[in-house]
Structure formats: C-alpha cells, structure tokens
Amino acid sequence: MSHREQTPLQLKCYEVIFGTETPAGKWFDLALIAIIIASVIVIMLDSIVSLDASYGDLFFRLEWLFTLLFTVEYLARIWCTPNRRAYVLSLYGVVDLLAVLPTYLSIFLPQTAPLLIIRLLRILRIFRVLRLLTLLNEANDLAAALQRSGRKIFVFFTVMMILATIFGCLLYVIEGPGNGFDDIPTSVYWAIVTITTVGYGDVTPVTTAGRAVSAAGMLVGYAIIAVPTGIITAELTMAQQIKKQRLAMLARNCTNCSTVEPDPDAHYCRACGSQLPRPGHAPETEKS
Amino acid sequence: MSHREQTPLQLKCYEVIFGTETPAGKWFDLALIAIIIASVIVIMLDSIVSLDASYGDLFFRLEWLFTLLFTVEYLARIWCTPNRRAYVLSLYGVVDLLAVLPTYLSIFLPQTAPLLIIRLLRILRIFRVLRLLTLLNEANDLAAALQRSGRKIFVFFTVMMILATIFGCLLYVIEGPGNGFDDIPTSVYWAIVTITTVGYGDVTPVTTAGRAVSAAGMLVGYAIIAVPTGIITAELTMAQQIKKQRLAMLARNCTNCSTVEPDPDAHYCRACGSQLPRPGHAPETEKS
Amino acid sequence: MSHREQTPLQLKCYEVIFGTETPAGKWFDLALIAIIIASVIVIMLDSIVSLDASYGDLFFRLEWLFTLLFTVEYLARIWCTPNRRAYVLSLYGVVDLLAVLPTYLSIFLPQTAPLLIIRLLRILRIFRVLRLLTLLNEANDLAAALQRSGRKIFVFFTVMMILATIFGCLLYVIEGPGNGFDDIPTSVYWAIVTITTVGYGDVTPVTTAGRAVSAAGMLVGYAIIAVPTGIITAELTMAQQIKKQRLAMLARNCTNCSTVEPDPDAHYCRACGSQLPRPGHAPETEKS
Amino acid sequence: MSHREQTPLQLKCYEVIFGTETPAGKWFDLALIAIIIASVIVIMLDSIVSLDASYGDLFFRLEWLFTLLFTVEYLARIWCTPNRRAYVLSLYGVVDLLAVLPTYLSIFLPQTAPLLIIRLLRILRIFRVLRLLTLLNEANDLAAALQRSGRKIFVFFTVMMILATIFGCLLYVIEGPGNGFDDIPTSVYWAIVTITTVGYGDVTPVTTAGRAVSAAGMLVGYAIIAVPTGIITAELTMAQQIKKQRLAMLARNCTNCSTVEPDPDAHYCRACGSQLPRPGHAPETEKS
Fold first, then answer.
1. Do B201 and C200 touch (CB under 8 A)?
2. Residues linked to residue A261 through DSSP beta bridges, in sequence order
3. Domains, chain B, with CATH or none
C-alpha cells in the first residue's frame, strides 16, 4: 500500500497542497506562510506578561484556531498524498506534526504541572517557524553551496573551538577567578564571544597582560572571518562560472565570417546571414 | 499638458538644476549637497539641549533660511521641468517636498501640541539627508549588484529570522524571565543582537547551558556572514568579467603574424605593421 | 641509530598508531580524538568550584586514567617509530609529551606551592586540545591558502596595529584619564576592541568629540575587514581555477568533428565515435 | 640647487639610509624599525601613572636618547639626499620631523602650561609609529587595490552615513531622551555603533518598538558588510587574473605537435623537442 492510486479529487487536492506550479497551489502556499507567521507572532506576544493579562483570552482562541487549521491541513496532506508512510516519516511530515502536537498535549497537562514543562510546550509550538524553511525552495542554491563546502566549514569550526579553548585557558590563568573568569567553561565562553567579535562585555579582561592577549585574540578572530567567507565565495563564484561555461559550450563560430554566436537557438549568422553549424559541435574558439 | 514646450529660460534653468553635464549644473549640485549637509547638521545640533538653550535663536533662523532655499529650489524645479506632474509624483519630487513641509507645518502647530508630534516634525526634516541619495549617481553600480542578488538576499534574511526565532526561544526556555530573557520578543531581539555579532551585552546568558547554546549561535552567525558576502562578491566578480569579455570580443589576431591586438581602435599590427581585420569578426582565438 | 630496522610487530603497531589508511588506524585515530575531547571536558568541569566539590575525586581518577592512556600511547609511539629522535623532537612529539607531563609534575609539587603554579599546571594539561590539530589532516588546504597569503596578512596586521595606536592616542587626548581612557595601553586596547568590531563596552567614549572620532574608527574597521577577506578569497578562487585549468589542459578536440572531450581517460569521441588524439598534446582550443 | 652633485660619501650614505637593496641598507631599515617600536612602547608605558612614578627618570632618558637618534638620522637624510627641498617637503620628511619636534618643544614649555598641551605634545611623539608605514613597501599592492576601489568605497561610506542618520533619528523619536538617546548626535553615534556591529552597549534600546527597529538596522548592517568585501575581493581577484593573463600571453604552441609551452624562457618543445616559435607572437590558443 506504499504507493496508492489517487482518486481525481485527491489528485486535484495534491496539486493545490503540495504543488507550486498551479495558481491555486501558489495561493495556498502564500496563505499558509501568512498563517504560520501570524501564529508565530501570537505565540511571541502571548509570552509578554502585560499583553497576556489583557488579551490572554484572544490569544488562547487564536492559538486554537491556528492549531485547528494546521490540523486540517495535516490530515488533508495525509489524505491526498500518494505515499502516506513516506510523507508522515519525512522531515516535512514530522515538522507538520510538531506544529500541532504541543497544543493538544497542553489539554492533558494537569494544573499542577511544573512551570518549565508548560513553558516548553508553549515554546515547542514556535518551531512552526521551521515550516517556512520547507516552503522556501529558493534556499536550495545556498544550501547546495554550503553542503559542498561542508567539510571545510567543519574543519573551520574545529579550529575555532581549539583557538577558543586555548585563548580561554590563557585568560583563565592570567585574569583568574577574581576578575570574572571564574572557571574554564566561562573563559571559553568569553573567548568565543571575543573571537566571533560579538563582544557582550559581561566578562572582560582588566589586567594589562589579559588585555594584550585578548587584543591578539580579537585580531586573530577578525582576520579568521575571512576563511569561511573565502570558502563560500570561491564556491559560489565557481558555481556561476560553471553555469556560464555550459552556455559557452553551445556557442559557435560562423563558417563563413567567423563571428561568434553565443545564442544556442540561432540558425543564421547575425553578421553575414549564412547558416550556422549545429550547436555543441563547434566550440567557441574553433574554426570548422 | 503632460509634456509642455519649455521657454529658453526654462530650458537653461532645467540644465542647471536637473543636469550634471554643464559646469553650472555641477556647481549647483555641489552647492546643494553642501546646503543639505549644513541643514542636517543644524537639526542635529538643535537637538542637543545645552546648545539649544544658547544658540536656539540662531538655529531657528538658519532652519528658516534653509527651508526658504529648499522652497525656492522646489518651486524652480516645478517651473522649469518639461513634465510637472511626473516630477511632483516622482520619488525625487516627494522627497523634495518632505524636505520643506515639516517646517511649514510647525507654524500651524498649537502651543499645546504633544511633545511627540513636535519631535516628530523636527525629525522628519532630517530626512532631507535622503536627497543626498538622489544626487549620488555613482551608487547605481552597487544598487544594481544588490538588486540582481535581491532574491538570494531575501532568502538569506528569512533564514536569519528563522534562526533568530529558534535561538531566541531556546534561550527563553533555558534562561527564563529571571535572567533578562523576559519574553520571546526580547529573546529574539537578543538572538539578532548575538547572531549579527553586534553583542550589546544588555541581555546576556548567565547559566552554563545558556552560554553553551549562545556560543553555538555566535559561531553560526559568525560563519553565516560569509553567505551575503559570497553572494555579492560572486555578483561583482561576474559583472567585472562580463565587462572584460565584451572588450575581449573586440580583440583580433593579425592575419600575417597572429599577434593579438586587444585595442579595438587599432588599424595596423603593432608587431609586423600589416593591416588588421575589422574588429568583431575575428575573435581573439581565431586565425582567419 | 637514527633510522632503525623495525620488527614486524613494530611495523604493525606503527601502521595502526601513525597511519590512517588501514581500518585499524582509522579507529585508533577516532578513539584518540574521543579520549582527547573527554579529557579536555574533564579538565574544564574540574575548574568549576561547585562541581569540583562534589565530583573532585571522580575527576581526579579520570584525569589519572587519561594521563596513563596518553603515557602508554606516547611510549608506544616512541617504541614503534622507525626514527625515535625525529619523533621526540618533532612538534607532534613535544605536544604529546606536554599532554602528560603536567599531571606527573603535580605529584612533586609541595603542598605549599603558590596557587598560580597549581593553576598553571592544571591549565597546561588542556593544551592536549592541540593534539586534535595534528590529527586534522583536512586543515592543510586552508593552512596552505593562509601561508601563501602570509606576507599580505602580516602587512594587514601591521597596518591594523598602526591604526589602533593612532586611534587609541586620539581618544586618550580627547577623553583623558577621567573617562576610562586611563593610559595609552588602555586606549590602544579600546581601539583594537573597536576596530575589530568586538565592542565590549567596558571603555567607551562619552564626549561628543570622542564619539565622533570613535565612529570614524568603527567605519574604518568595518570597511577594513574587507581586506583579509579579499586576500583569502582571491587566493582560494585562484587555487580552484588552477585545479580546473590543469584538468582543462588535458581536454582535447575530436580530429573528425571538433567536439571537445574534457575526460582525459576517453579514447573515442562521444559525438562521432572516431579515435581521439592523446591527451596533453592537443589543448582544448586547438584543431590539430 | 634643487638637484646637487653628491660626494662619494654622501652617495654611500644615501644608499644605506634611503636604499633597501644593499645588505647595509636592509640592516639600517631593520634597526630603524626596532628603534621606532621601542620608542613607541616607551611612550605608552610612560603614560601609565604607576610606572611613571617608578621609572619616570629612565623613560625620560630613553626618550631623549631616541629623540637624539632620530635627530641624527633626520639630519643625515637631509645631508645625503640629492634633492634636499624635495625630501624636507615630502610626506616622509614631514613625518620624520614630527617624530622629533614635540620633544624639543617640551623644553620651551613653561611649568605652568595647561595639562592638555603637555599631554598633546606627549602624544604627538607617538605618531612616530607612522614612520613604520613609510618603511612598509609591501603595503603598496593593498593600497593600490583600495585606491582603484576608492570611488566605490566613498559611495559606500556616504550610504552608511545616510543609513546611520535615518536609523539614529528613528530611535531618537521612538526611545526619546529618557532612554539614553539624549540628542540626535548621540543617536547617530548609537546607529554607527550598531550598524558596524561594534555594539558597545552604552546606549541600547529598551522599548519593544525601538528593539524591533534596531534589529532591522543590525540585519541591514550585517548584510551591508558584504559590499566593501565584494568590492575589494573583485578588485584583488581581477588583479591576480590580469597578472596571470600577462604570463599566458607569452605561452606558445609547438609548431610540430601543438603542445602548450607556458614558460616564456623555453627554447625547445618539452614533448617533441622541436624548436619553439618566439614568445609573444603566437598566443596560447593559436596554431601558427
């Protein structure tokens, strides 16, 4: 039963809910994005104590409205997909389920539940925002570039962690627990805050030696940001050039006057009007 | 009446005010830039309480002088442009009107007007600085590169917002309202401050778990800055290469000795002196 | 005795400990990485006062366990390597020794030793994290790119230091000791914190003049980050292009139909089936 | 007298002091760099109150030693240069004079001189560090890339200032003087601190609206850093490619077997041994 026959209604429904080619499919996606954002904003506002006191009831009703909408959508997706098991177990299916589950779970929660669990359930609902990612199909190019550079970026993060450990320990020895560098995890946290140029200022060196070593760490961190940038940029530049070269492969020279014709769909030379050779056979720099 | 005949005086005036080719047009633009900057500085200084007490009268008079100058200029632009409706409704026309309107509105403001509205009118005048943008025609190249990458940058911002929401919620759960993470909007604000490596330090994690998650967020934010940089750089590099290739298209080889001649205006080979073929027919890598 | 004959057991042991090609060698490396990370985490947790009070004994025993493991590994490396002197004096050998030495030294430390020395010995052990670097052979590409740009990056750091000195002194004169800019080293520290965009906020300008000069410094620092990024990116892009060109060098054109064949291992034209010339003789843009 | 004849002694001296080709010239430069750095460090340490109390006399004597050394060097430069007026009025000559002048001026300073002037004279001496720049001839490549992109970077700074003015004014209206945004200059200072991702945290938004607008400003600032990076990187990549192409221009094909010979100094084909054509005549992609 892994790949069922779809009824015409299911097929129509599938095109609207899963597809993006038809106008109806596009409008469905846009409406879904709007509802997700509205739902996330409601959860955010609900967490503000003063707003919760005044509009708590409204937020509660809106939350249930959104949850019911997402539930209907989730059931519709299961109903109309040709391969139910694949959808439910896919990343998208899991995220769609997580978008509604916490609200239902909150019903069964006893009044005496610890605050942390209530807060957790509330927050889990906000992971609905992840649904945006699955609707954002333009992100693929960037994700592909990141993935191709994945190994280098992993090495980069490892080197960053080693640097942060070493700088953190140096400052732990130099400044000591008296100046806010209470233990090594705190010092390593400080080193990451510094090397990434975030610089909160909640832990800062106060001795001259500590400041000198910190300054060295800052300069290293400042220069090292060039590394991931260089990796991604080289990857993206390469991707653009490959795309350009594939087009250039199809360029031809006129057999009569040698003019280059980059358009693969042209049939006649734009300079002398004689017939062009078939694209793909005579590359750009070739006279046949 | 949308495209009127201009009198010679209007035409002359139009060249000076709107044009940048004639010396008079250039001087007019430079003078205008100087007056705009002076006017913005006066508004800035006027907002300093101690200076306002001493020089309030001077600032008031200067402000009216600048406003009258801009009014005269605005009316002159309307008078001499060939298409009045188009100018008044264009972005430039609206910005030019906004540069003078707030000062006139302040006359009709009752003494009992709320402080916020007075402050708003004062500040609206500072948007005169936007007039600089309309005079800065060198910004076009950069704007074009940004526009071509617009879709990718929009995706980038969406991913940033999703990341900030998730990191903000994680810290809201971990740190809780007791440690400054009062509600989700505050936590998301903290996440944006952290991921963009701004790092004010007004809200900072204090628990070990919170610091570990923050450190992960910082490293992600630090590495992710590579993405917009890579996008813009690849775009600018590509633009430069296309410009170079257009020139290379016009390069020729000498029919006698094969020397490459990149200058499209050359008539004779710089190596052997024989006549060169016409540019555009024989591309760089071709012997005809 | 600098290059001894290895017994078969030593050879086998050498392949596992030093090599990464055999499955056993890979597992050994992975296990070693896990132990190093575990050992570093124990040292970090040990530095937290509250954890040290509760689990001090456990940490102490784990520390000795790790030290014994590293000692056995160090002795095994000396035993099985073909050139003992070279290993012991190499960077790797010194780092491996430093990973165990501090723990043994702590035995001979009198109870009355100053706190700083005890802390130093504890911290020296954390430099075990450096052993990760020697196991991370993927870092070579990045290190090579950094090394090729080394001279330019050195110039960049010198210019940064000169800029920081000048901005620091300007602020020292403008703000003076009263506003936190106590002496020139502090002011230069502030300038580095600012120019690298770290921005702790422990020392900040308060006068209008100081803020204006700082803002100029920030903009300079913000723009100057482009320089190392540009250097590294140009280096990495160049490295990728050279790799691509080496492959293109081996591309050939079919002698019959001129189709380009980029695969150096192909023997027959994929378009017309005629035999291809030998790679390396007829470059991509050539008709033979 | 603008271009005098040099005596042999002057010529010899000129080669050592101004030149970098001879070993003596190189050692002179290295010694000068060391003395400049030592001199700057002494001025820095002298500004620390506690050190000045203990070692004030030593610093005073060292300062006079360095000043005398620089004076002798300055006079020697004037004596041995072929064109005295050109050197004295050049940027280098002015910087060299500024390196010694403040110390001499301090003699004539009355005991009752205001503290600011004393501090100023002390600080002016530190601009000796600028002499390092004039000795750093490797900085030329970077300076050339920056200069070629100068117009674009100027546009970038103007856009940054306009953005900072607008964001500063928005926050001035939203937050108001009560929350640290006392006047527009302070708000613009805050905007620059934020957009450049420095983020001191001395002025931070506290209202929800202010935080939302700030977050938008941070994201804009975070993305906009891509612009100068892209400009510089495209410029450096282009410079590398032009250098590579100049070499490629000299590449030739063997007239016998078409093998490409990139080395301009080769006389015979490395593949078949036949004599190669002269470089520069037959470009890389040409068969003669």
1. yes
2. A252
3. 8-131 (1.20.120.350), 132-250 (1.10.287.70), 252-288 (no CATH)
